Amino acid sequence: MNILILGSGGREHAFALKLAQSKQCSNLFVAPGNAGTQQIAKNVNISVNDFEAIKDFVITENIKMLVVGPEDPLVNGIHDFFLSDAQLKEVIVIGPEKLGATLEGSKEFTKEFLFRHNIPTAAYQSFTADTVEEGYAFLKTLTAPYVLKADGLAAGKGVLIINDLQEAKDSLKEMLVDAKFGAASAKVVIEEFLDGIEMSCFVLTDGKNYKILPYAKDYKRIGEGDKGLNTGGMGAVSPVPFLDTEMLEKIETRIVKPTINGFQKDNMSYKGFVFIGLIRVNNEPFVIEYNVRMGDPETEVVLPRIKTDLVTLFKAVGNQTLNEVDLDLDERAACTVMTVSGGYPEAYQKGKEITGLENVTDSLIFHAGTTTKDGKIVTNGGRVIAVTSFGKDYKECLATSYKNVKKFNFDGMYYRTDLGFDL
Ligand code: AMP
Ligand code: GLY
Questions:
Q1: 80 within ligand 1 shell (Cβ under 6 A)
Q2: CATH T-level fold of 123-191
Q3: b/e 367-380 (16+ beta carbons within 10 angstroms → b)
Q4: How far is the CA of 267 from the centre of ligand 1 (A)?
Q5: Domain-by-domain residue ranges, the chain?
Q6: CB 289 less than 6 A from any atom of ligand 1
């Protein structure tokens, strides 16, 4: 079968590698892709939100499966677009329809879903410009730090955690009244602060059945010791060493099952990944957020640990027969170290040549922000190359990745050397 992946990051390179390994995959395309996907698939110069161009390509190339990497096209309704088109409706689309994607597109929608289905999460209230005074009053009832979330998608910047009450009030006003995050902050969710350690649970579902994929933990801050600005992710480890059987059981019964049942109760047709952001507080799991896609760079450690043919899994998602497929996992641990462009997550340069990648032989190299120029591989984003390694535990994996990041280079390359410090 011919398959098209949408996206251009390390996540999509990891999908491409896994799909290319399947005997069931004939022609593999990535739109728009990067220099890494180009080595194993065919890159197509189409934007992930250009649904008409995607449609033409799918028909011309006889694509039977569409794997949607990022959330944007899902929130914009690409799955619904395929279902409502006579020529596209038989294509298997991996990623939820618009209603399900609202779990990532709106914080308030998510909180309502969580409360409706009795899934543990922080207490909250939401406010608009008309109720800003009530918002101030609610803040007063809470203790610091204060968690303020823009309701809509704000490029990962819409969550503020503030220690001072007056500052929290000022920020609430900036968000609601002065449109700090544009339309995304026309509504703001204020939440009780949860103090604990975070991890991620990845679920693949056909809407009825589900498979829990390997757990992972990512490192979001740019600086060592989890200091500094938030990034897309500076690295990840899988499995999460502190998750014991009791905690895994709690997560499945209190969170995963009610989530999938919630989809059915709410008539939310959901075929794809659910990325559940969790926090452990006093040995109890709480949901921080849902994403409706895989994480990046978590995908670069989760997919390599899956031995089952990914096309088989995705077909079963399309046919709602996921219960008939066994999920076979690699018991080894995996980690990934992300190398980034100097300056990221603020301003950084692009177009720097990357040399020495061929010297890495005992790790997987996933391209994030790369492209080719005059036959050379050059940087094309903040996050550039992820180096994934296997080992008996996270320490052994990290040692291999850290050995291998030294074998390649680009001008301004930076990475965190302390991943796993908190485990
Ligand atoms: P979100 O976009 O909702 O995942 O929030 C971004 C980050 O803010 C999370 O990964 C957490 O580190 C932090 N965060 C969000 N909500 C809370 C909360 N209720 N308590 C503590 N930290 C939070
Ligand atoms: N690594 C976090 C994310 O993909 O949202």
A1: no
A2: Dna Ligase; domain 1 (3.30.1490)
A3: bbbbbeeeeebbbb
A4: 28
A5: 2-97, 123-191
A6: yes
